[in-house]
Amino acid sequence: MNILLLGSGGREHALAWKLAQSPSVGQFYAMPGNPGIAQHAELIEGIPLSAHDTLVTWCKDHGIELVVVGPEAPLVSGLVDKLEAAGIPAFGPRAAAACLEGSKLFTKELCKANAIPTAAFARFTNAADAAAYVRAEGAPIVVKADGLMAGKGVVVALTTDEAVAAVEGIFASGGTEVLIEEFMTGEEASLFCLVDGETVLPFGSAQDHKRAFDGDLGPNTGGMGAYSPAPVLTEELERRAIEEIVRPTAKAMVAAGTPYRGVLYAGLMLTSEGPKLVEYNCRFGDPECQVLMPRFRGDLLEVLHATATGRLAQITPQWSDDSAITVVYATRGYPGPHQVGSEISGLDAAEADENVLVFQAGTKQKGTKLVSNGGRVLNITATGSSLGEAQARAYAAAEKINWPDGFYRTDIGWRALGNAKA
Ligand code: AMP
Ligand code: GLY
Hints:
- The chain is about 30% helix and about 30% strand.
- It is an alpha+beta fold.
- Helix 7 runs antiparallel to helix 8 (about 160-170).
- The longest helix has 21 residues, at about 235-255.
């Protein structure tokens, strides 16, 4: 089967690594890819992922039989609709279903209409009414802008003044509606499910570390590390999350005539009343995907193709009992301003341990050298029979990498391992 993988991050390198192991892979292309992905696929440059029509034509010309979409933006903007209209199967939801990530308001209304547990909310189209509501409810309280904000649209306000400032900021920068949510307390965990209409197949759990520095301090990032499984998401809590949150969502999407197909990533808050939905994403997490793939034992191409073509019900995935952890090696300064272009070496030494994989994110090939090319650059990933063993292997491997311009957190996994450094 000829396949095209879209994206250029560590998530896509992990997908490429696993897809390449499938016995049915024919020609394997990636757009735009990165040097890590190039170990498994032929990179195609020059077509932006937003150029849907050009992309569809390219796929037809190259006999592509499955497109695997890594990031959310092409899903939300309807690339899968275009591919399917041209008869090309794609892994990922159509635009009307990708709304579960693309519009927080859409998801909140869907939860309300279907009694899906989530934070209570109110929505406002002007700052004065929103501010009055915030003052009446009190803090802590959560303020959200609608739409794809790459993680920047959420303010967890500890005071009402902070919440009011966030509301005013959203309207001042052109927002037309805000969402004010009840503040939920509990531990957060991510649950991944493959969804094909009403068929829901659990596809692993993970927890990530969003803050830049040890002890969960510093600014929010796209994720500085993750591990799988999430021990806090017990079998019983996972069952409840599927039955009370994911399955009713899948049913509601079918009933609305916009069935979901792809991976549905549920961000959960494990509250004293049970799991509640924080948010949905319509793709794999980054760096969560990097810890799911090393634990997945089946044929990823078969599973993604079955999801894309309405045959998910026939699949029984196999998982390793091992734990996996990934440590993000980022450029100093990230998530703020940072340099690119510094040389990285020692990847082979790091990967000498057969339990270690280094997935590349923001990297670039410059002649024979590998150089940094972004904020999150490498994902040092390891497996082990326990999370502690995986963690020790990942950090031993990270020390073998020579990249003076980089930094990583030294406490990934602390919550699960109970060794808080804060
Ligand atoms: P994101 O949308 O991924 O930027 O996530 C926002 C983060 O804000 C979540 O991971 C939670 O930590 C937090 N958050 C969002 N909504 C709530 C809520 N209603 N109560 C408490 N924390 C929240
Ligand atoms: N690591 C969070 C995300 O992929 O959204």
